[in-house]
Amino acid sequence: MTTMAADAGAQDTTAHEADFDAAVAADERIEPRDWMPDAYRATLVRQIAQHAHSEIIGMQPEANWITRAPSLRRKAILMAKVQDEAGHGLYLYSAAETLGTGRDELLDKLHSGRQKYSSIFNYPTLTWADVGAIGWLVDGAAITNQVPLCRCSYGPYARAMVRICKEESFHQRQGYELLLALSRGTEAQHAMAQDAVDRWWWPSLMMFGPPDAESAHSAQSMAWKIKRHSNDELRQRFVDICVPQAASLGLTLPDPGLRWNEERGRHDFGAIDWTEFQEVLRGNGPCNDQRIGQRRRAHEEGAWVREAAAAYAAKHGKATA
Ligand SMILES: [Fe+2]
Ligand SMILES: [Fe+2]
Question: Coiled coil located at which positions (predicted)?
Fold first, then answer.
């Protein structure tokens, strides 16, 4: 490249960058064909991939209970929910594809441990009440995180989130309704619901990520309007939403430090055990190996489906050409 061409290229980038910054500042959407900084693209791919992986890995702990659901109604609801999560994974892998990264590459990174999924899915579902606790707390935390993403600066991600959030809110309500039925049931059922909430509460709070001061990507993501609120702000919102809901469920949240703070107009809550979070993140959670092993197996066993679909597409393509 000549010096003049290099200069022109640099000027182009500066002009593109100015357009991009102006669009973000004006709350306009960035679309796949628009110029975007490489780091913005990479951040989105990382975040959308992690989100997509969480959706499909998240199918496992709940699918574990489909065959043991206590009634046909509960089984139908749970099957619909688990199927929704597969759909969420598909929307999100498609959103990542608009950034130039294919699904094969992302799945390969998941299977080889180079990309992560939400740590929450490394906890086991020990009883039927866990299905309720996951719906109420895990899907509830996901909604709190994801509603602001409907206004994310990247168009395809924002639009995928609109539909996902609608479905997540059904998931949250089915979990609440399940727990309510158990809480109002026999003493043993009530105890089972309480035990599930005791086990899922703290991991749900960890879903919002590390405290703001230690969050590596937060500031830049907020400047790019990928992220709209900080981890701590979203976590606080979630706690404030859950406290009255727990009261109407007749269940307690396992935190002696939880109390209304009149001055702040919000709830104070106890310290989170971040060592546990880091351990699970490092792969030492109760189910890390099981989850990724199952995912790899499912991928290998599904090879014939992908081959058949590709062969059909090739044949169909020829027939219509
Ligand atoms: Fe989902
Ligand atoms: Fe969900």
Answer: none
Give the confidence band of 213 by pLDDT, cuts at 50, 70, 90: confident
For 266, the 3-state DSSP assignment is strand
Give the CB-side neighbour count of residue 213, counting CA atoms within 13 A: 0
| Structure confidence by residue, pLDDT tens digits, 148-169 | 999 999 999 999 999 999 999 9
Q: How many CB atoms lie within 10 A of CB 280?
A: 20
Measured from the alpha carbon of residue 85, the closest ligand is 1
> What is the Å distance from ligand 2's center to 256 Cα?
29
Given CATH 1.20.1260.10, say whether it is the number of domain 17-317: yes
Residue spans per domain, the chain: 17-317
CA nearest to 123, candidates 205, 209, 195, 203: 203
129 alpha carbon – ligand 1 mean position (Å): 19
Determine the distance separating the centroid of ligand 1 and the alpha carbon of 165, expressed in angstroms.
Answer: 8
Separation of CA 84 and ligand 2 centre (Å): 7
Cα-flanking dihedrals φ and ψ of residue 267, to 5°? -90, 140
Mean pLDDT of the chain: 93
Q: Quick one: which of 191, 205, 193, 143 has its CA closest to 168?
A: 143
